[in-house]
Amino acid sequence: MPHIFFGANDAAFETHPQHVPVSRYIQNIQQMVNLITNPESQYYIPEVKILLISPPPVGDKLWIKHCCIDKNPNDHKNNHPSVNDNNIQIYNRSNGHVLKYVEALEEFSQLYNPSNNNNNNSSSSSSSSDGEKRVCFVNVWKSIMTEHKKLPEDLRNNQWDGFDQFTVDGLHLSQHGYQVVVDEILKVIGQNWPELVPENLPLHAPYWKDIVDSTKFNDEDHSCEKLLVI
């Protein structure tokens, strides 16, 4: 199951070299999806299921701090650099700006909803012959913001507005942040493709309990083979 997880860097401001306009961002995503859903593509995978994962939110204040320290190493002595004109010039992302990419990706994903196929003139079909959804949207931005609202007030209103609970620097996710992502991915899979939930997947190798915990040695070539329990 391909996971397409782009946008955090694309959503940098126009003045930043990593910036990709929203329209181009969606075009790039569409090319990736079409590559494996278009029957005319050499990479076409019948019945493939794809997750489109939104970029996560940005902790504005924490990212400003990171950018300032990265630009001015001596600022590490100041735990909360001031937001002055010089620092604003260094600052290259905002949570409000990344939301535009999240909303555009969600809107794009609706084109791959079976209920919209009759109105979709795209060269790639997103649903299987039985109308099953082929592309699903995972709103990581919304999931983390929802968890953010659940934080205790003292954490939510700390000097980093609580985003230090989900990111290490305002942009890159922490262990807790990634756990929210994983939980949301599994929820979307369970809602749309329950047969692909981990516990429902078949084993492609013998289960360890089905392998005898003993070894039969061949004295001639010193090889060994595992005995399977019948």
Notes on the structure:
It comes from Mycoemilia scoparia. Residues 112-131 are annotated as: Disordered. With 230 residues, the chain is α/β, with parallel strands linked by helices. It has one domain (3-204): SGNH hydrolase (Rossmann fold). It is 35% helix and 10% strand. The chain has helices at 22-37, 60-71, 85-90, 95-109, 140-149, 153-156, 175-192; strands spanning 3-5, 50-53, 135-138, 211-217, 224-228. Helix 1 (22-37) runs parallel beside helix 4 and helix 5 crosses helix 7 (175-192). The longest helix is centred in the last third of the chain and has 18 residues, at 175-192. The model is unreliable at 73-88, 118-127 and 226-230 (pLDDT under 50).
Provide the fold topology.
Elements: E1 3-5, H1 22-37, E2 50-53, H2 60-71, H3 85-90, H4 95-109, E3 135-138, H5 140-149, H6 153-156, H7 175-192, E4 211-217, E5 224-228
Parallel strand pairs: 1-2, 2-3
Antiparallel strand pairs: 4-5
Helix pairs in contact: 1-4, 5-7
Number of extended strands = 5
**CATH topology, anyone?**
Rossmann fold
Overall CATH architecture? 3-Layer(aba) Sandwich
Task: Please give the alpha-carbon distance between the first and last residues.
Answer: 33 Å
Classified by CATH, the class is Alpha Beta
Cα radius of gyration in angstroms: 24 Å
Count the domains: 1
Strand order, sheet with most strands? 1-2-3
Low-confidence spans? 73-88, 118-127, 226-230
The CATH superfamily bears the name SGNH hydrolase
Mean pLDDT: 82
How would you sum up the global shape?
globular
Number of H/I helices: 7
* Largest sheet report: 3 strands, parallel
Give the class from helix and strand content and strand pairing: alpha/beta
Biased composition (Low complexity): 115-129
GO molecular function: hydrolase activity, acting on ester bonds
Protein name: Isoamyl acetate-hydrolyzing esterase
Pfam families: Lipase_GDSL
